[in-house]
Amino acid sequence: MSVISSWNLTISLNTTLSLSWRSSLPSRAIFPRPKKPKTPVVLAIALGAKPTVLVAEKLGDAGIQLLKTFANVDCSYNLSPEELCTKISLCDALIVRSGTKVTREVFESAMGRLKVVGRAGVGIDNVDISAATEHGCLVVNAPTANTIAAAEHGIALLTAVSRNVAQADASVKAGKWERNKYVGVSLVGKILAVMGFGKVGSEVARRAKGLGMQVIAHDPYAAADRARAIGVELVSFEEALTTADFISLHMPLTPATSKMLNDEAFSRVKKGVRIINVARGGVIDEEALLRALDSGIVAQAALDVFTEEPPPQENKLVRHENVTVTPHLGASTTEAQEGVALEIAEAVVGALKGELAATAVNAPMVPAEVLLQLSPYVALTEKLGRLAVQLVAGGSGVKFVKVTYASARGPDDLDTRLLRAMVTKGLIEPISSVFVNLVNADFIGKQRGLRLTEERIVLDGSPEKPLEFIQVRIANVESKFASAISNSGEIAVEGRVKDGKPHLTKVGSFGVDVSLEGSIVLCRQSDQPGIIGKVGNILSEENVNVNFMSVGRIAPGKQAVMTIGLDEEPSRDALKKIGEITAVEEFVFLKL
Question: Which residue in the list 113, 274, 328, 496 is annotated as catalytic?
Fold first, then answer.
């Protein structure tokens, strides 16, 4: 058993959400009015109303048609920042390409309505991810559909600079025939350094190997075995710079990669190197590249991207005779445009429906196949959090929470980030006005000071199921249902997934078994005949349907805990009658 993560959080419980009663108290039970349930977190849209999706840049027709089957679609292109901020408060989702800046001001102007930003492409440097996260807005991208198109464009520019295609074309069109001037270089046997060995970089490497090039790559996050599988050697940044005949850039623009190719880097490259960039303009210091071209250190460059797009007309780099330029065409094939449109439309619609997004940028990243396995456990962890926090007596501050995962799988085979986010959501939402989702769960948790630790229990047996059970404990608090206190003095609830549905299987030290649907009544009673019938009669008189019931007891004739699952919420009078049954020692009503 080992604790794998922790962070600090404090929640102030100022509102009593659940109804509880103990027969040991001399005073009569008081039943406060429950808070109204909040709007669903991922999709805050009025019941029956279609969401509105703003498409701010040109998107393929297939994607537009898919969006229209689910949402109202507003295609408004070339919006100024002011116009975008004005429109966004009326939109539930926003789709952009690389030309629209989605800034903090955009998220603030949305006033909480914007739930999803879809980036039709891979790079997300035009979206303020930090602001999106703080405002609970999911950011999704389309990382696969344009991979081949971008790789092909990289190869096209690679071959163009090796044979002076653009310059020779312009020369012939100017009425000249300068064969000796445009003698090129062969690619066979040359060393290509791929900077950034992700989806696009690896596809460029595959194609360059087919051209007879020797390919090396630099990427601090790439797996060496994956590179070796296609005949590529991973090397240091220094080795890539000093040995390459061609350098092809395929990394995202981050603080670490900004102006990665600068004066210092160019001073270490092999003289006569050729640079290809289909990634992001900001990864090259454009002034430094201009100096390297003028000095002959860099023989040629082929650029599809620029720090400022479109670049100013007087841009010296664009006009340089040894530079081949294209207007950000990496993803510009008919097939890629339609593929990206469909991919981002599917991601946005799925997110608006509340589905887990495999392409989420600012939420726990879990592969699609794992999402399918974890889906029922996501519901279980949220509901356990909701139950646990409602068991806390009003006035107690929730500071210390422990989540235990029991599994036959090894630690490396169980990614719990998604589950931790949902526990946090379940803990915070019922006792605050904050909407919590997968995107902002960690941020909200840290902001409120809660200390949440996770631990794993490795079980013997088959690892076929991701988890056997999950337990949520809250320490250093009082409980409005004393039986929820475990032997260690903490509020403890435990559950597992049965037949694909979340079940509550333990409260405190009492074993129970009830489906976590609708609402729940927990009763501690003396173990004697007739109690189940009495409670059932009270609920049936109120036309409240019981969907599940179980009783866990210490021993025959001793104390027992009855757990009742309800489809409808009983009235206060019905709950009062349950509390007045002689054998009932305490009970609590909990909303899921």
Answer: 328
